[in-house]
């Protein structure tokens, strides 16, 4: 019946790795590979696994019920379980330690729930590994560029300041010369001391 079909879909098991299925990690760093699952009717003796490139199993765990945390069945030594299923979310995320370039590839989180007639579902996440030194070199270049730009602006500001002060000083000196010259002309015209009108004639021989 159509109604029963919709009911079955509503209670189906779902697995998710989040909004994006791509993760980037630096070489020799640790990277989180997220995964959660949902089921409306609950779970019992649930089995979950993580596979690398669909062939290599890197983590195998089981969960008895919602009241208990997952327990380890088997794992790669560099993989650590960081999830929890007793809280709000059924989190079965893992951390891959000391990432290498050979770790780049496809990681699949697979869940099987016996309580849903062994319903199975999975989600895939793709890991990209980048060179650590290149990232640091880029950051270093950015920092050096910013610092160099600030120093350049400071030097330019000091030069502009000196030029402005020099121009102001020259302008003030020019005004003083004009005042002195103007004062000397007035004295000459009025016949004051130092003018031509009061100059004595040279003594006769």
TrEMBL record:
<dbReference type="InterPro" id="IPR003599">
    <property type="entry name" value="Ig_sub"/>
</dbReference>
<keyword id="KW-0472">Membrane</keyword>
<keyword id="KW-1133">Transmembrane helix</keyword>
<keyword id="KW-0393">Immunoglobulin domain</keyword>
<dbReference type="GO" id="GO:0017080">
    <property type="term" value="F:sodium channel regulator activity"/>
</dbReference>
<dbReference type="InterPro" id="IPR000920">
    <property type="entry name" value="Myelin_P0-rel"/>
</dbReference>
<keyword id="KW-0325">Glycoprotein</keyword>
<protein>
    <submittedName>
        <fullName>SCN4B protein</fullName>
    </submittedName>
</protein>
<keyword id="KW-1015">Disulfide bond</keyword>
<feature type="transmembrane region" description="Helical">
    <location>
        <begin position="139"/>
        <end position="160"/>
    </location>
</feature>
<feature type="signal peptide">
    <location>
        <begin position="1"/>
        <end position="18"/>
    </location>
</feature>
<dbReference type="Pfam" id="PF07686">
    <property type="entry name" value="V-set"/>
</dbReference>
<keyword id="KW-0732">Signal</keyword>
<dbReference type="GO" id="GO:0001518">
    <property type="term" value="C:voltage-gated sodium channel complex"/>
</dbReference>
<dbReference type="GO" id="GO:0060307">
    <property type="term" value="P:regulation of ventricular cardiac muscle cell membrane repolarization"/>
</dbReference>
<dbReference type="InterPro" id="IPR036179">
    <property type="entry name" value="Ig-like_dom_sf"/>
</dbReference>
<dbReference type="GO" id="GO:0044325">
    <property type="term" value="F:transmembrane transporter binding"/>
</dbReference>
<keyword id="KW-0812">Transmembrane</keyword>
<dbReference type="InterPro" id="IPR013783">
    <property type="entry name" value="Ig-like_fold"/>
</dbReference>
<dbReference type="GO" id="GO:0086002">
    <property type="term" value="P:cardiac muscle cell action potential involved in contraction"/>
</dbReference>
<feature type="compositionally biased region" description="Polar residues">
    <location>
        <begin position="180"/>
        <end position="190"/>
    </location>
</feature>
<dbReference type="InterPro" id="IPR007110">
    <property type="entry name" value="Ig-like_dom"/>
</dbReference>
<feature type="domain" description="Ig-like">
    <location>
        <begin position="2"/>
        <end position="126"/>
    </location>
</feature>
<feature type="region of interest" description="Disordered">
    <location>
        <begin position="177"/>
        <end position="205"/>
    </location>
</feature>
<dbReference type="InterPro" id="IPR013106">
    <property type="entry name" value="Ig_V-set"/>
</dbReference>
């Amino acid at each position: 019946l159509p109604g029963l079909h919709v009911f079955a879909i509503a209670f189906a098991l779902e697995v998710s790795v989040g909004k994006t299925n791509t993760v980037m990690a630096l070489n020799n760093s640790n990277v989180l590979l997220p995964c959660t699952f949902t089921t409306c009717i609950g779970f019992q003796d649930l089995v979950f696994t993580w596979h690398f490139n669909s062939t290599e199993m890197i983590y195998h765990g089981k969960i008895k019920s919602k009241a208990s945390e997952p327990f380890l069945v088997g794992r790669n030594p560099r993989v650590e379980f960081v999830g929890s299923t007793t809280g709000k979310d059924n989190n079965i995320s893992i951390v891959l330690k000391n990432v290498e370039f050979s770790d780049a590839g496809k990681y699949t989180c697979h869940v099987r729930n016996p309580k849903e007639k062994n319903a199975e579902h999975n989600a895939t996440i793709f890991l990209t590994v980048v060179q650590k030194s290149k990232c640091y070199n880029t950051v270093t270049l950015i920092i050096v560029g910013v610092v160099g730009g600030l120093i350049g602006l400071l030097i330019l500001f000091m030069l502009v300041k000196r030029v402005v002060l020099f121009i102001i000083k020259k302008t003030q000196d020019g005004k003083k010369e004009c005042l002195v010259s103007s004062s000397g002309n007035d004295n000459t015209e009025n016949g004051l001391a130092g003018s031509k009108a009061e100059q004595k004639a040279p003594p006769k021989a």
